Amino acid sequence: MREARFYTTSADYVYQDLRHHIITKQLQPGQRLPEVSIAVQMGVSRTPVREALRRLASEGLVTIIPNSGARLACPSQKEMENAYILREHLECLAIRLAAERITERQLRRLEDSVLEEERAFHEKNLELYLEVNENFHRTIAESSGNRILAEYVENILARTNVYIVFYDPFYNIETNPSIPQHRAIIAALAERSPEKAEALMREHLRFSMEDLQPPKEAEEF
Fold this sequence. Notes:
Distance between the termini: 39 Å
Radius of gyration: 19 Å
Largest sheet: 2 strands, antiparallel
Oligomer: single chain
Number of domains: 2
Order of helices and strands: HHHEEHHHHHH
CATH architecture of the largest domain: Up-down Bundle
Strand order of the largest sheet: 1-2
């Protein structure tokens, strides 16, 4: 376990440690997170634990149930499908606009993101991978020139990142198809082809959704 002295506050220490355990899949969806046990294990009071859990809940990683306590989130198949339907509509609109408006500087940012994405995957660093993957999609949304649309895309990215944390087979695969898919998207944007860029984005997002592997008990009926 990492030392508390590396962090600015006890709450930050607890937050970073729990988040690390979640990202590296040492904790399972739906698992209880009892404040007292965490406080004892980490050598802190319950107050920073409570603060850390609230912060994780704001990111969608933890669910806090009144009079019951905190659990790791457990997104259902239906929830993910609904989120990806919305994400597909938003990002396909964004990339059509971006194909007509994207600058050379923004294209270079996308290329840099893919290089960082390759490094993160090679190092099996899911936290870095999520960051650069989000940067890739956010750059496209910003390139649309529609600030409100870009904000909606950023919000849905935060939600779907939670699904990747819990259900993506990141640590168990040797190749990542998202990387060549991202390169194809960049090429379509460089060609200024809205139709091609939209088709590639739609295919990419549907593949990403299909790649998630939720357990049966996470499904809603």
